[in-house]
Predict the structure of Prophenoloxidase.
Amino acid sequence: MAATDQTRILSLYEQVSYTSDTGGDVPTDSTGGLNLGTALNMPRGSVFSTFVQSHRRAAKDLCDVLMSTSSPIQLMELAGRLSDRLNENLFIYAVSFVILHKQEFRNLRLPSIVEVFPHKFVPAEELTKMQVTVNKLPPNQEAQLVIEYGPEFASTNLKPEHRVSYWSEDYGINSHHWHWHLVYPAEMDVPGDRKGELFYYMHQQMVASYDMESLSVDLNRVEKLENWRVPIRDGYFSKLTSNNSGSAWGTRQDDSLMKDFSRTDFGLDFMDITVMEIWMSRLMDAIHQGYMMNSNGDSVPLSDNVTTGKLGIEILGDAFEADASLSPNALFYGDLHNLGHLMIAFTHDNDGAHKEEIGVMGDSATAMSDPVFYRWHKFVDGIFQEYKMTQPPYTLEDLSLPNVVVDKVGVLSDNQLNQLTTGWNLREFEASSGLDFNAPNPVMLRITHLDHAPFNYHIQVTNSGAAPKKVTVSIFIAPKHNVRGLEMSFMEQRLLWSEMDKFTETLKPGKNQIVRASKDSSITNPNEFTFSDLGPRPPPAADGSAPPPANNEFNFCGCGWPEHLLLPSGKPEGMTYQLFVMLTDYEKDKVEEPKGPSKCANAVSFCGILDAKYPDKSPMGFPFDRRPPPILNNEMVTSVADYASLGNMSLTDITITFLNNQLKK
């Protein structure tokens, strides 16, 4: 697809980003008889939230219209004609959805959401300071304009949970969350293999990563938010704005109570906490009965030990998220996950008496910055874990791989064995792509973020079979000790195991040496394209040869855990983690895939593959998604070391040291 097509599409994002978001009278130009449905009902300048069913319906109506285009030029012409009639956030969501999901547009790339909406990632005060600086510049003076931001972010360390704000407010994880819900939207008629299970697993891994980061700064693991009748201990003040005009997100004071929702200005029906409690009770009943009830009154079995049809965890995920088009019975099991986000987001003004804006928990691009996100999703994961505990433990046959032995595992970074380092790094975005500072030069946003020195896994394996053996290599990491400094049992450590990588390897008979770079992880998105990355391509070289293609240019969708947060920070004095490596039989793991290149295949563990099956039959999180068998090889299973006694698994202690300075990468 021509570079000019990409440039045209980028102009749509810039056009919308520069609008004033002030609402007012809509232009009178015709929509050409297009049926935009409820998309026209969302006021300009208001918050668009995929957690709200009426907002999802508006997005569906708009996306249906935009999906009818057959070329980037048609998309731009139609979208450009509609942009000033529509809510800005809704418009950007819909254009991004179409670019990502429409087959004809697969070679177009989405710009970073940080550049499209910088106000969702940078406090208003910093943006205002830069505007004042620009206003004071003498005419025609060229100066580098840079907004420096981080790592203290929106709060001090007086509150314990603020000690990990550098992580929760990181641009990468919030951008990833926005992208994930764009790849796997609710109620948008998008086929997604094992979508409900991916919802469970991706969010479970988010909470595990947050818990690991908390342990790195000597905090307890996050507590689930399961009692909605007691105050929420921790408040949150994001300092961000919900639109380009500076409208602030709602804030939550310490010890705020969730209250029944009774606003009429957000497209949301009145909602009682009691109803949420009923939904939770029905989900728990279904888990322990072993089935859900569909809208016809028929039972839908819940089991992960099935060879056909959906896994129970997928059915439960569809009902819990909830996607009304996939839930067995949306009216009966409700919309618990989404409504939970919204009830928390409106604790400060549940009845609209103060005309305050929704809080950051109401937007997928900002929700992860609020510490209560992890409390809410610890509760969500608790429901899924309740189900997982009803599934039988894996057997020796499930866990072992005959004729394959992992002899030795290590990680190497800067010639240091099993010694990894983290520190700070810088990432630049062009803030003036999304905000019009009326500056003579681009206004850059320079964010300080956690990062790690690159490293390689070295895995020595013996294949004692007579023929080559194709295997799946899975790598996990978890802290070795709890907050009290004690080694953790299997069950205490089970939900801390974070997937680091998963890939296939063919073992020749005899000794094998596997080397895998951390940058190739199956969970991460190594790049996030900026407007300048996606702008006009450089001209041909002097010899007439074409310029080199952009990195991952035709295999990118923006979904994936940020590569710079692959590792937890560790401690300045060093912190011990355990590296778990497992090899399984690829012939048992593999799924049939369509031929040809895969779209969005750079972060398959969390994001799957667009328009294809999830590339691994085993349950996500295997082998830590279930309780262990009580006995394995005639020995009691009390720790993960008992799993590692099997030849195809290995457990290695490594140390992660936080240097608290800028890394050289």
